[in-house]
Amino acid sequence: MARPLIISDCDEVLLHMIVPFGVWLEETQPVSFKLIGNDFSKAIRDKQSGEPVEPMEIWRLLNLFFDNEMHRQNPIIGAVGAINTLKDHADVVILTNLADKHNEARARQLAEHGIEARVFTNQGPKGPALQAILDEYKPSKAVFIDDLAQHHGSAAEMVPHIDRLHLCGEPTLAPHITCGFQAGHAHARIDTWEHALPWLLSRL
User: Fold this and answer.
1) Average pLDDT across the chain, whole number
2) Are residues 48 and 60 in the same domain?
3) In this predicted model, what pLDDT tens digit does every residue of 90-107 receive, in sequence order?
4) What is the DSSP track for 33-101?
5) Phi and psi at residue 77, in whole multiples of 5°?
6) What is the phi/psi pair of residue 12, to 5°?
7) What confidence category does residue 41 fall into, taking pLDDT thresholds of 50, 70 and 90?
8) Do residues 25 and 112 both lie within one domain?
9) Nearest 5°: CA angle at 62, between 134 and 188?
10) Per-residue confidence band for 40, with pLDDT thresholds at 50, 70 and 90
11) pLDDT tens digits for 106-143?
């Protein structure tokens, strides 16, 4: 008989990303990092001119970080224990927006922090990837967890029958992002695993 399925994002849901990325930039690159609100496009600036770097340079720096610096990422408080509790009740997979070349590194990184789970890498909206995962697993029930409202919008459009939790565990970012629950695309917005776990268990 099919088990329930948890499909979780990684960065800012299971592991901190924006803070270690910013620290690494400040330490090693000729740019500064200061996120004001949620405008990532203006957060990275040339240290000499103060001008925002071009989008292509942002992507280059992000790829460089994920190529070599993932060891800087640490778990969101409560994430490891919550995911392993959920594994007692459901299958758990990770759907992360990284290049496919980072799939094995992401799985290894999570395992080193105590989360053993299959990883799916994706680029762009997550609705099509969610549909493909559901087609493979055919779960009795599914819940999607992500920190970005646009991915909940994509999920609501393509797989509206699954439950959707908007969770951003990075406190410097959470107050500034668009809320998927307020937008009508997520069923709840809970930013701590302590409070998210009971909600998730109730949906299974």
Assistant:
1) 96
2) yes
3) 999 999 999 999 999 999
4) E---TT-GGGTEEETTT-PBPPHHHHHHHHHHHHHH-GGG--BPTTHHHHHHHHTTTSEEEEEE-S-GG
5) -55, 125
6) 70, 0
7) confident
8) no
9) 40
10) confident
11) 999 999 999 999 999 999 999 999 999 999 999 999 99
Token pair recorded at residue 62: 């992000």
Task: Assess contact for 2 and 141: CB atoms under 8 A.
Answer: no
pTM attached to this predicted model = 0.96
Q: What's residue 15's pLDDT? A: 98
Using CB atoms within 10 Å of the CB of residue 47, give its burial: 0 to 12 exposed, 13 to 18 middle, 19+ buried.
Answer: exposed
Range of the domain at 198: 5-16+74-203
- Total structural domains in the chain? 2
Give backbone dihedrals phi and psi of 168, rounded to 5 degrees, phi first. -120, 110
In angstroms, the CA 106 to CA 65 distance is 12
Same domain as 100, residue 11:
yes
- Examine the domain organization and report whether 137 and 56 are in the same domain: no
Q: Any idea which residue has 């690159």 for tokens? A: 29
Whichever domain contains 185, its CATH number is 3.40.50.1000
48: helix, strand or coil: coil
Same structural domain for residues 151 and 133? yes
Question: How many C-beta atoms surround the C-beta of residue 129 within 10 A?
Answer: 22
Q: Clarify whether residues 131 and 184 are in a common domain.
A: yes
